[in-house]
Specification:
This protein is mainly β. The chain has a domain of about 100 residues: Jelly Rolls (Sandwich). The protein contains one helix and 13 strands. A six-stranded antiparallel sheet has the order 3-4-5-12-7-10, covered by helices on one side. Strands 9-8-11 form a three-stranded antiparallel sheet, with no helix packed on it. A hairpin with a 6-residue loop joins strand 4 and strand 5. It is globular.
């Protein structure tokens, strides 16, 4: 098994320990959240046809959360940023992120993060869907970057 596939499998397996509804507490007050991949509750992302989200912890519309996003193969976003710092693992597919005008391919098993509202373009290579695991440290949003303002005459 190549290193990228092994990493993707390890990440996928670790993601299956997250759950929406099932939480078991032990006598010491610890907790575990568990959900098999087949039980993720995918929903459409409003305003982004084809994008799906499965929340596994918290509420992305209110604050810090963990969620999965699924992008269809061939998807490409416009230049944008997100308000919260966020940390991402690529579970499947190949993401292509354009940062500072340069494309970087990130296959399954890869990691990236964006902090301080860093502008970027998100693409999923044609073919397989791309699935990401996202740890967002605040309310999730997508803020389009405006074109450079015109000079006043």
């Amino acid at each position: 098994m190549n290193r990228n596939v092994a990493a993707a499998v390890a990440i996928s397996m670790s993601m299956t320990v997250l759950a929406l509804d099932a939480v078991a507490k032990d006598a010491k007050g610890g907790a575990a959240a568990l959900v098999p991949a087949g039980e993720l509750k995918w929903s459409d992302v409003q305003g982004f046809p084809g994008l799906k989200m499965a929340v596994v912890d918290g509420d992305p519309g209110k604050g810090a959360s963990h969620f999965m996003m699924k992008f269809p193969g061939g998807f490409a976003s416009p230049l944008h940023h997100h308000t919260p710092d966020h940390y991402v693992s690529v579970i499947s597919g190949t993401m292509v992120l354009n940062v500072d005008g340069k494309d970087q391919k990130l296959p399954a098993g890869s990691y990236f993060s964006f902090k301080g509202k860093k502008p970027h373009i998100t693409k999923c290579e044609a073919g397989a869907d791309c699935v990401l695991s996202i740890d967002a440290r605040g309310k999730w949003d997508v803020i389009p970057e405006d074109k450079a303002p015109e000079k006043k005459k």
